[in-house]
Design goal:
The structure holds 2 protein chains of 2 kinds. By secondary structure, chain A is mainly α. Chain A has one domain: Orthogonal Bundle (ABC transporter involved in vitamin B12 uptake, BtuC), CATH 1.10.3470. Chain A contains 13 helices and 2 strands, in the order αααααβαβααααααα. The radius of gyration of chain A is 21 Å and the shape is globular. Chain A starts with a helix and ends in a 17-residue tail after the last helix. Chain B has one domain: ABC transporter involved in vitamin B12 uptake, BtuC (Orthogonal Bundle), CATH 1.10.3470. A two-stranded antiparallel ribbon of chain B has the order 1-2. In chain B, strand 1 and strand 2 form a beta hairpin. Classes of the chains: A mainly alpha, B mainly alpha. Chains A and B meet through helix 5, helix 11 and helix 13 of A and helix 6, helix 11 and helix 13 of B.
Chain lengths: 338, 363
């Protein structure tokens, strides 16, 4: 990079940071104003923001773990849907929510393994591989789903003692169901593993320059397999969230494009866990606001236009930020050992 | 299968046809076998299910007409995806483009009165197709000017299209009564059905031939394929890549929109929400089953159309949920893409320039 280009990139970085600060300030003021004028609704919207963002953060974590190791995962949607279904079935037949969550994790991991098999072993085009998973999951879940199955309860919110008593912050952060807590922890764990451990360094090496990684003795195929499988299980957790924590039951195609929105979240978050978390909160906020607007019925906008909100936001975000994100260099390319 | 087999066909040409058709055929057979295993797991009898499926698809002239009717939008959906593939783009937005094509065709169909058939029907068809083209051009433009990946934007545009068309059919364009749907189209806008044979099917065949001609016999087609193979090389060769990307997506959207328009004008007769829900995904399977050859799309779409036409018979006779055909379609897509497995079985060497590569445009 030339110095001029670097200076330009730096000034653009500053510019983005300033815009971000201003935006953040406005949001903060908005929240304070909202809380003073209408504390109940504001708390409800913010709590719902965090929960709505959960499957998106998880999906984005799945995507970024894969892409950091060089594998595009556009099958997140299918992994989520399949895991949601299996977790639901496990809950119906065992009545044990913990087992059901594990079933969701395992399903996601299996589908992650399938994606790795297609893209690493068969060297299939990765986007088509992900599409296979999406279509297969939609078909299988619709085929095996029978109406009339009833769940045996869903995951309940756990208030964290006195922390949950803090006004505004308490109900938003410290009074959530388990998968939402797990997601917050996972963001930190993935960040730490990716940037501060040997594993993370190797993952990034495999995603940026696989032949160099291979030269120093890193098993590229193995790294990619394991990362995509772990990613898949995280997507599986998102699926479990949908059936066990958010809705409590299964519906056909219930993921509703969240797996794809998660990809936008991942890009918007610049392939970092905390970035993805911030981006997902923005989307979660849009959905929470949308639900609130629909409930209140005060707005004279047809509900279909409110329903479009997350999808329009995804496009706007992609259009505005894609060019500014650096994608792992080896992503999408099957690695051929020499 | 799709190449013309004139009497002077040399053995080498027959070999070429075999090479082109063997992998898709093997993929279909493998998918049906795995599908049979899934049917066994679910407690159904695969032989009974498949024979009911075949009966529902080909058992009578009415059944055959239904197969052609189902295949019609599938041909266009498959062409849309295949065409975009040739330009190196993955159009998963066929569904949204189809919805816009369908509702605009319905709008022209019921909104205008007193035109003769010779003007009204083609006008409705053209306006529907153009609506699809415009809607398809959006992700093309987004990709060109902002770098937003069409793989994600087209899916988002599908959801937006579902909401938007629902609103039109439930709001400004709503028919009288409680059902959310548009009024019926005028008689003069309808595409006829001759006996059991829908005329729209021939329009779809025409579109397939036109798409093939455009891709392989025109400069524009050459430019689109060059951009698809290597957009950097295309740029050095003086091709306007940005323009070509938008054009490719617009033509792809035109084809999908035409599928929606024919469905409205020839089958449904109006627009109603929930219209042809899974078509975008079907198009992907069909395009890859045809190995992205526009002429190959026709038999591929006929196969999927036959499965769709026969699925209700299968559900009725063998009590197998019709969704099994979605599973089989996904398996077909897997086997046709995982050609390493299939090649190992049928012992066919890969051909040059046949591979679909999308993930290079990801970054």
């Amino acid at each position: 990079m030339t110095t001029a280009a670097m200076a330009k990139a730096k000034s653009r970085g500053d510019y983005v940071r300033i815009v971000g600060l201003i935006f953040g300030g406005i949001v903060l003021l908005g929240i304070i104003y909202g809380y003073i004028t209408n504390p109940v609704t504001t708390t409800a919207v913010l709590a719902s923001t965090l929960r709505q963002s959960t499957p998106l953060v998880l999906g984005a974590l799945c995507g970024l773990i894969g892409e950091r190791s060089g594998i595009i995962n556009i099958g997140i949607e299918g992994q989520m849907l399949m895991a949601a279904f299996i977790a639901f079935l496990a809950n119906v037949y065992t009545g044990n929510l913990f087992v059901a969550v594990l079933a969701g994790l395992a399903t996601g991991a299996v589908l992650g393994g399938f994606l790795a098999f297609m893209s690493v072993t068969l060297k299939m085009d990765q986007i088509i591989g992900g599409t296979v998973i999406n279509i297969l999951a939609l078909g299988l879940t619709s085929f095996f789903y029978q109406t009339g199955l009833t769940t045996q309860g869903k995951l309940q919110a756990i208030a964290l003692g006195p922390l949950a008593e803090i006004p505004l912050i308490g109900p938003v952060f410290f009074d959530n169901p388990p998968i939402t807590y797990a997601t917050l922890i996972l963001v930190m764990v993935v960040h730490y593993v990716l940037f501060y451990t040997r594993w993370g360094l190797r993952t990034r090496a495999v995603g940026e320059h696989p032949s160099a990684a291979d030269t120093v003795g890193i098993n590229v195929y193995k790294m990619r397999y394991i990362n995509v499988i772990i990613g898949g299980s995280i997507a599986g957790l998102a699926g479990a969230y949908l059936t066990l924590e958010a809705v409590g039951s299964f519906e056909r195609a219930m993921t509703n494009g969240r797996g794809f929105v998660a990809l936008a979240v991942m890009i918007f978050g610049k392939y970092t866990p905390f970035g993805a978390w911030g981006a997902a909160l923005l989307f979660g906020f849009a959905v929470a606001l949308q639900t609130q607007l629909q409930f209140s019925g005060r707005l004279e906008i047809p509900h279909q236009f409110i329903g479009m909100l997350p999808y329009v936001l995804t496009i706007v975000v992609l259009a505005g930020f894609v060019g500014r994100t650096r994608v792992p260099a080896a992503v999408g390319k099957p690695y051929e050992k020499e | 299968m799709t190449t013309q087999t004139d009497s002077k066909a040399k053995p080498s040409r027959l070999m070429a046809i075999w090479r082109a058709a063997s992998i898709p055929l093997a993929a279909v057979i493998l998918a049906l076998l795995v599908g049979a295993v899934i049917l066994l797991i679910s407690g159904a009898n695969p032989i009974a299910a498949y024979s009911a499926l075949a009966k529902g698809a080909f058992g009578s002239t009415a059944a055959f007409g239904r197969t052609l009717e189902k295949a019609t939008p599938l041909i266009l959906g498959g062409l849309a995806v295949a065409f975009a593939f040739k330009g190196g783009l993955f159009n998963i937005g066929g569904q949204g483009q189809l919805l816009f094509g369908a509702i605009v065709a319905a709008g022209v169909g019921f909104g205008i009165d007193g035109l003769p058939f010779i003007i009204h029907m083609p006008l409705a068809l053209l306006m529907g197709s153009l609506a699809g083209a415009l809607y398809g051009a959006i992700p093309g433009a987004l990709k060109t000017y902002t770098g937003a990946r069409e793989v994600i934007t087209t899916i988002m545009l599908n959801f937006i299209a579902i909401n938007f068309t629902d609103w039109l059919a439930d709001g400004p364009w709503k028919d009288e009564g409680i059902v959310a749907r548009t009024p019926a189209i005028a008689e003069a806008a309808a595409i006829p059905t001759w006996g059991n044979i829908p005329a729209g099917f021939f329009l779809a065949i025409l579109a397939a031939v036109a798409t093939w001609y455009l891709l392989y016999r025109t400069t524009t087609g050459y430019e689109i394929r060059t951009v698809g193979l290597n957009s950097n090389a295309a740029k050095y060769a003086g091709i306007k890549v940005s323009y070509t990307v938008i054009l490719t997506m617009a033509i792809s959207g035109f084809l999908a929109g035409m599928g929606g328009a024919i469905e409205t004008l020839g089958v449904v007769g109006r627009y109603q929400p929930g219209f042809n829900a899974g078509l975008g995904f079907d198009g992907i399977t069909i395009a890859l089953l045809a190995r992205t050859n526009p002429l190959g799309v026709v038999p591929a779409a006929l196969l999927v159309g036959a499965m769709q036409a026969g699925s209700s018979q299968m559900q009725f006779d063998a009590h197998v949920p019709f969704q099994i055909i979605d599973v089989i379609q996904a398996l077909i897509l897997f086997f046709v893409s995982a050609d390493m497995i299939v090649r190992w079985i049928v012992r066919v060497q890969p051909e040059e320039g046949e591979q679909v590569t999308l993930s290079t445009s990801w970054g």
